[in-house]
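Hi Y.,

Following your request, here is the sequence exactly as I used it, all 809 residues.
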Amino acid sequence: MTQTGNTAAREKGQAPSPQWFVTGQNAHARQSRFPFPGLLLALALGGLAFAGEPHLPPSDLNLKLAAPITTWDEGIPLGNGLLGGLLWGEDHTIRLSLDRGDLWDERPREGIPTDRFNYHNLVRLVGEGNNAEVNAICDYPYGGPHPTKIPAGRLEITLDPSQKVERFELDLASAEGRAWMAGGRDPLEVFFNAAEPAALIRIPGAKPVTLSLKPPESVAKLGYPAPQMGEQGGMHWFLQEAALGLRYCVAVGSRRTGENTLLAFTVTSTRDGADPVGLARQRVGDALAAGYDQSLASHTAWWREFWSASGVFVPEPEILQHYYLVQYFYGAASRRGAPPIPLQGVWTADAGTLPPWKGDYHNDLNTQMTYIAYQTAGRFDEGRVFLDFLWDLLPVFREFAKDFYDAPGAAVPGVMSLAGQALGGWGHYSLSPTMGAWNGHLFYLHWRYTGDDRFLRQRAYPWCREVGTCLRHLLKPDEQGVLRLPLSTSPEIFGNTGRAWLVPNSNYDLACLKMLFLSLAEMARACDEDAAADEWLKTADGLGEFHVNADGALKLDAKLDLTESHRHLSNLMPIHPFNLITIDGGTQDRRIIDASLEQWDALGTKAWCGYSFSWMSCLRARAGDAEAALRNLDLFVKAFILRNGFHANGDQTRSGFSNFTYRPFTLEGNFLAAQAVHEMLLESWAPAPGSGDEGIIRIFPAVPWRWHDVSFDQLRAEGNHRVSARRENNATTWLRVVAGRDGCVRIRDNFGGRTPEWNCDDVRKRSEDFEVVLRRGEAVEASLPRPDSPAPRPDDVAEPVVIPAKTRQ
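Below is the corresponding structure, written out as tokens. Let me know if you'd prefer a different format.
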């Protein structure tokens, strides 16, 4: 019998990963293709009760892939924030594609026309209708092989010929990768130590293995010299000279321990010190001396703490597994002290080519959506990685504002390197000044969700103020006194053609500007800067209204309607993620939401990418349309991810959901899918951004009918309130809110006319909400009767997406 992860843990003397238990499954789950019979949720007194460690993903949710895995981008993803690896292979060959987050070639392309690469010249050329020259100037810096993210290399392990890999597995709870051998009892095991910058592999078998370190072929395209290979005392390494003084070393060492072979490996660079080889050998030696079990103990302790933040349960196997995999991505690829997640995280291409889109930081969707899902999950340390990165780059952004825009304050390039270097590309979005405003929204949300006033005063408000200063400088009043930018676009709409220059301000730019200035007004007021708050509010008011057509649908700009399917939902950003147009905003807002979504439905999904579906799922949930939210999310997880869960831009089933069928992976679509689950289970946005109002806690605001039984534990609402709730037979039956700060907690009455039984007498009903004043750490709890059976099936229920196996690539 094949050994399970928990059985292996027991036999190694470790505590097994605990399982969840549920009192029964709903009828749909019993009839569906539910491959996780052990996945049962505990529904106990007062909420979720977990056996053992709370929230550890059960082994049923582990990523399990049959061998062979013949391509790097379908490997088992492993990482500790700085180092990353992909585990793959076939027969008796095991491969680990290695990466390190800060390996970058930062050389600008030679010959950039610096005298013409500025905003003033861009405005002039657009005014003259000379889009060809715009493209010649803006695309040029992006057209060379560098700047670019670079991979570290590959470790290949040749096993004894009697050992043949049968399947691979990612243990989510312990962040271990495993390769199971045919007929073997014990698997090959590997983890990237969460506590140390090294990784360890334990390989069962009486016979030694053969190791091979392979430098990446792709760096030859950058003109690097051949690496220097070295070997001594059972260690192997290579030292690669890169560019601008960067050198990096990949090293591996081995020793026999009983019937096992133990390997340790690492990647060091001159960012660590002057002697990467010496440091690499030291780290490998220390890891070998500590051994697998000792190192694993500190590693799993880190991951137990990570998983303790929150937990969810939905009765949809693929969606639940994907949700936990994406949470794992935060832990594996976003760690304080290491770079934030770029397009491909710490899993840079290992295919003899440089990474797609340079593996860079795209600020027209990718970075913002990658870091949109951490707040509700309570993964604030992982989210701070990106905010710390943006804060540290503030001097670079000031220089960019001065040199490119001739403006005070700070500006964020739409496409940039690790060092914040503007990489160019389609100038219509890569050099749009409002990208920094969208980044600023993450600072604002972090403050709203944590309630951390120190972060507000020291980071959020100062950073956003600099970006607001630059944008306010660029805005000029027109004849009617409306503030407008010199140029305006909507990301990737009309590509890099002359049509992409829209009438200022596009709805996209308008949304970014309004959200920034309203949040600046709120943050300034909270910092006791009332005069500044009034000025920011005045700027927001001076931007005018959003552009809508006769039906009420959001247009691209004052003149143009969206008339064709498109991958970027840019004109819908006032609805999501900014909440500038909401279902609480009255008849006009509701009309705009309905008309805009109807327009997108009519245009179809042929030009969508994977992230379009997961973003639309978030948006539909925010609009209260649970069935459409599930339909889009279901399509995403079944058609737009690779075997290992990575979001692929194209339809991997070739089922006609999109005309795009290619497979380069980027991660933002994954995080949007996790956020879609959050949006369906818990929302807490304030009806009027900038007002300073506390967010309204909305429990189960968009749960689809076929999710009869749903629950979550310790998800976060704005104010760092910890919310847990249970839903049975399509009705909320229990909830608890633990206050994260002093003040009034507002809970939307979303209980279908049933009256909650509260645990205290201080709860008052005002309009649509229940209100109670709590001190930090105090809890309010309510229970409601459990219906005898699920609610009647609605007419618009989202049927499960079924894709024949033969259509998958």
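Confidence is low (pLDDT under 50) at residues 1-52.

Thanks again,
Q.
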